[in-house]
Each structure stands twice: as structure tokens, then as C-alpha cells.
Write a structure and sequence with these properties.
By secondary structure, the protein is of the alpha+beta class. It is built from 2 helices and 4 strands; from the N terminus they run βαββαβ. 28% of the residues lie in helices and 44% in strands. The longest helix is centred in the last third of the chain and has 12 residues, at 56-67. The chain is globular. The protein starts with a strand and ends with a strand.
């Protein structure tokens, strides 16, 4: 199956969702190239970027599951 490289940007406003985020990312670990998290204390948010190499449906499913969490928003950039 053909894969694409994408970057999923995640903004976390509700820190109670952190465990759910980590569990979801763990479920898709075989596709994740790398991730970086940045706490932005001045705005009381966390910013996470996830680089992924996966089929389109996997990328969409991951981004969709993350975006459904309370206080979490996502945006995906495809190559």
C-alpha cells in the first residue's frame, strides 16, 4: 500500500486529554517517524508535532481520533 509523509500539528488546551493522546499515538507508533512536544506556559497550552509515514486512511484516522478529544485541535499537512 502506498504511503505518504505528513505532519500532524496538535494543540492541547485540556491537559486531562494528555493520557488519551499518548495512548492514541502509541496505537499508531509503527507509522510515526518522530514527535516533538512544546509546552507554552504563557498561553497555558501544549503544542505537539507528529511526523508520520502511512497510508492516507491511517493518517486521517489518527488525526480524526486526536481531534475528537476534549480540548484538542489538529491540522494535517501532507507531502
Amino acid at each position: 500500500m502506498e504511503t505518504r509523509v505528513a505532519l500532524i500539528g496538535i494543540v492541547v488546551k485540556n491537559f486531562d486529554s494528555a493520557n488519551h493522546i499518548n495512548n492514541i499515538l502509541h496505537d499508531y507508533g509503527e507509522y510515526i517517524i518522530g514527535r516533538m512536544g512544546i509546552p507554552y506556559k504563557e498561553k497555558n497550552i501544549n503544542i505537539i508535532s507528529v511526523a508520520i509515514d502511512a497510508p492516507n486512511d491511517i493518517i486521517s484516522a489518527l488525526s480524526g481520533k486526536l481531534g475528537q478529544l476534549d480540548g484538542v485541535s489538529t491540522k494535517t499537512i501532507y507531502n
